[in-house]
Amino acid sequence: MTNDPNGSQAAAERGITLGEIGHRIVLENEFVRIWEVKLEPGETIDFHLHYHPYIVISLGGGENEVETIFGETRPTNEPLGHTIFMNEMRPVHKLTNKSDVTYLSRLVELKHITWTDEGAPDKPEPAPQPVMPEDAADAFREILIQTADMEWVDKSLDGLSQKMLWRNEETGASIALVRFKKGAGIPNAHAHASNQFMYCLSGRYTYIPTNTVLTPGTFYCNPTGSVHGPTICEEDCVLLEIYDGPHYPVRPPWYDNDEDAR
Ligand SMILES: [Fe+2]
Ligand SMILES: [Fe+2]
User: Fold this and answer.
1) What class does CATH assign to 147-261?
2) Which pLDDT score, from 0 to 100, does residue 37 have?
3) Could you say which ligand is closest to the alpha carbon of residue 74?
4) What's the gap in Å between 54 CA and the centre of ligand 1?
5) Statement: the pTM of the whole predicted model exceeds 0.70
6) What is the chain's percent helix, strand, coil content, to nearest 5?
């Protein structure tokens, strides 16, 4: 081989088309391109070449093996947190997960430097990667909340607290975890200005006039305007409570502020 320091000619002669350096682009802007690399035990990411300096941060894994196009192999150990920085072009290589756990990492390419592959006469630059349009990222609007990390917020009714998970400020609809302490309850009969749904996660909560008892696994609904209560919590309970609109027509007397009533 005359001048093929990175093995791209060797790859071409063997009919190997170089692949991507990762499985999915997580984020890209003018400065960086961040890939996810995920290999199940025994799995390989195929021969590829890096054109930018890069950092690899392991999110989990173990023994891997790098094999270059020249047949050299090198074991790596990449457990969670393992971090490397590559500041020069290396020969075409592939990576195989040699452990019995999934290997997951983020590979951050630093785009301000682009290396030239001396051995690739007609392909100095890789084909442009599919780039997510700037505004496409806005299409992903998922929200994940770990409710265990939230504090219970006391309301102005004794023994009642909540974790507000979601609220639509325009419609008044909301989803919350509500917790009643044993002996607490809503003191009056009342109705809501929207449909109310409850799913009991723990404890025991009773609507006194109808002896409707919520226990873990029960689902309860008050259609808009349906009169119910008073209520009593017979065992500390947690309910997932959903309203599809405003909670009350007017602030009920058991709350001393408007915030608690919405
Ligand atoms: Fe690589
Ligand atoms: Fe109610």
Assistant:
1) mainly beta
2) 96
3) 1
4) 9
5) no
6) 5, 40, 55
